[in-house]
Amino acid sequence: MKEIVIISGKGGTGKTSVTASFGFLGGKDVVVADCDVDAADMHLLMKPDFAQSEDFYSGVVAEINPEKCTQCGLCAEKCRFDAIPVINNQHVVKKLDCEGCGYCEKVCPVDAITMRDQNVGDWYISTTKVDNTMVHAKLGIGAENSGKLVAKVKNEAKAIAEKQHKEFAVIDGSPGVGCPVVSSLSGADFTVIVTEPSVSGFHDLKRVFELVKKFKINAGCIINKYDINQEITDKIMNFLRDENIEHIASFPYDENFTRAMTLGKTIVEFDEGELKEKMVNSWTKVKQLVNHENLNV
Amino acid sequence: MKIAFTAKGTHWDSTIDPRFGRTEYILVYDDEKDEFESFDNRDIENEAHGAGPKTSQKLFELGAKVLITGNGPGGNAATVLEKAGIEIFIGAGNMTVKQAYEAYKNNQLTKF
Amino acid sequence: MRIAIASGKGGTGKTTLSANLAAFLSKTETVVLTDLDVEEPNSGLFIKGKLENEETKYKMIPEWKEETCTLCGECQKNCNFHAIIQLGPQILVFPELCHSCYACSELCPTDSLPMVSQRMGKLKHYSGDNIDFIESQLDIGQEQAVPLIGQTIQYVENNFDDNTLKIYDSPPGTSCPVIEATKDADFIILVTEPTPFGLHDLKLAVETVKELRKSFAVVINRWGLGDEKVMDYCKENDIPIIAKIPNLRQIAEIYSRGELIFEQVPEFKDELLKISDYIKKEMD
Predict the structure, then answer these.
(1) Where is mean pLDDT largest: A63-72, A90-99, C9-18, C137-146?
(2) Lowest CB count within 10 Å: A35, A139, A159, B18, which one?
(3) Chain B residue with minimal CA distance to C90?
(4) A82-119 as b/e, with b when 16 or more CB fall inside 10 Å?
(5) B69 with B9: CB under 8 angstroms?
């Protein structure tokens, strides 16, 4: 089983459209996972059935037992996050502000404070419209995506892929360059970076590739909307050449991507022309690259 | 000398877990005493952050001198391993523990 | 007045709107635009100005004093973030993992972990015609965006009075950094797209701002594309839609070059005018 992670650095480049197309084309050979839990959108295209769901806990929050609390105020004084205000003569914890450091719990003279596991969302194992398995999650408000949740979603997807003897796990990676994307990349066999030729798109491509290099993962790149700025597209192509990143495909600016999305479809179900052909070729190429690259390790 | 492996199971035939910090098991082989032990590391799943340093600390406590793994540790973990005087060899991601050990013996793994 | 511009997901045009709105309003008002997406600040690509001030930003972390340490291991136990590790006869501190809670430092029986400041990123302040632009960037490897966002807002509040219109470009998502960036705003503009992705993420963003009890309105970007469901949703929930920016390939092209859009596209300017009118009404 090989693990393919699709990332982008910047949002809105078409990462999820690409991942869902690969998930659709891969069909029963793949398990898909949505690690972009901040903006988990892939379910809108893959139509999973949310068959199995489980609570997800991450981190802790302080809780004050009002029965035991003597209102001495030591916790509030020690809290560096101003998370323990006095409301109606009671010290209470503002959950959104609590960082879970546990300092208050340790100093409370009457043991009135307990650190409780925080339920930050749910995660699901589903069957999609193409009858493959999808692992995904939904975060609650103010909950932070973390390496932990990404690792959970990804590991679950990988375990299922291994158990079902699938060829690939196709993973929609997290955006940005922080901890979640690090976690999505960790252990990957191949990564596809989806970018666009804008000043910010190129800037973020370079930043996210720094991470990919650190992990020594072979990478390919898809340039979306390549024709909105030929000059930057040329720069991206040079960058790919210099860094030994495989250029997988360039897609034109085309509203069919959005039309497909509006109908809850991947581009390969909607378009019958160039876009579909390019996407099908991209998937074929990615599969070849993943398998070929591993012969060299 | 104790050699540690990140692995997905507890045997010589288990595959190497390519991840370092969040590896499922740590296997330790003492090549002088020919002793082989495994340690469950799956608790680490409960940690949102800081998995790398935590696993590194475990290796130190187990007395490992060499680590054989897949992708290699992240920055924080690498710092701990360096301070702990543990040598790191990577690129064993697709091997079994046995194959990885052979590859290490034959100098086929990359030093981190 | 403080206006935060936010969106549930990245790539909806939040930064484009922030930069253009700020530049447009600066024709009639004194404006300061602040990019709070400290992991990936991008607004600066659109605003030109001269560098006025540069400040290194610090967070507090513990520093190990070997001489007085008894290696009792309390600090490691007291740290909920694994930012302190005891390795035989030494204590290692991982600044990126540290949340600056002071527990290890203040609970150390021998005061061997005094808090010291450590660089986490940099703030830059540019000024142009009637507009100031502030951005902060986290150093690579730093994981805590929240303290830098907080300090950046503090800088703006200390340097500009209430007569300045303060526009904050928030980070994407609905997690802690967005809450930090929007919790002191007087008014929030949520940017979305008329697509299922846009709607899904808008709903999350609306839940977040409702949780914060803020007054807010929606701007639809790439209008003309997709479907009517965002409109329907806003209508059902009594959320004002204050502008609809048309979907034009020309806009994507101008954006890709890092140029301001309203100067070249009159339809875009019309929509900014609507937002500006709405904001002025809110101010009164």
Answers:
(1) A63-72
(2) A159
(3) B83
(4) ebbeeeeeebbbeebbbbbbbbbbbbbeeebbebeebe
(5) no
Are residues B50 and C81, on separate chains, in Cβ contact within 8 Å?
Answer: yes
Note the CATH architecture for domain A2-47+128-296. 3-Layer(aba) Sandwich (3.40)
To the nearest 10°, report the CA torsion of A48, A52, A53, A54.
-140
Q: Where are the domains of chain C?
A: 2-57+122-283, 64-113
List the chains bordering chain C where 3 or more Cβ pairs fall under 8 Å. A, B
Which of the following CATH numbers is that of domain A58-119: 3.30.70.20, 3.40.50.720, 3.40.50.80, 3.30.565.10?
3.30.70.20
Helix (H) or strand (E) holding A117: strand A113-127
Q: What is the pLDDT of residues C33-48, one digit of tens each?
A: 999 988 878 777 778 7
A268 versus A215: which is more confidently predicted? Answer: A268
Complex ipTM value: 0.81
A295 has pLDDT over 50 = no
Could you tell me if B26 and B77 are in contact, meaning their C-beta atoms sit under 8 angstroms apart? no
Cβ–Cβ < 8 Å for C34, C197: no
Across the interface, whether the CB atoms of C103 and A142 are under 8 A apart is answered: no
Structure tokens at C152: 């950046």
Locate the chain A residue with the closest alpha carbon to B71: A215
Which stretch of A199-203, A212-216, B36-40, C160-164 has the lowest confidence by average pLDDT? Answer: A212-216
What sign does the dihedral B92-B96-B97-B98 (CA atoms) show? negative
**Is the CATH number 3.30.420.130 carried by domain B2-111?**
yes
Q: Would the pLDDT of C10 be above 80?
A: no
pLDDT score, position A293: 52
* Residue C162 C-beta-side C-alpha neighbours within 13 Å: 2
Phi, psi of C142 (to 5 degrees): -75, 135
Q: Given the DSSP bridges, would you call strands B35-40 and C187-192 parallel, antiparallel or unpaired?
A: unpaired
- Cβ of B45 within 8 Å of Cβ of A152? The answer is yes
46-75 in chain C: CB under 8 A from chain A: none
CATH number assigned to the domain covering C2-57+122-283? 3.40.50.300
Report whether pLDDT(A281) > 90. yes
In this predicted structure, the answer to whether residue A46 has a pLDDT above a threshold of 60 is yes
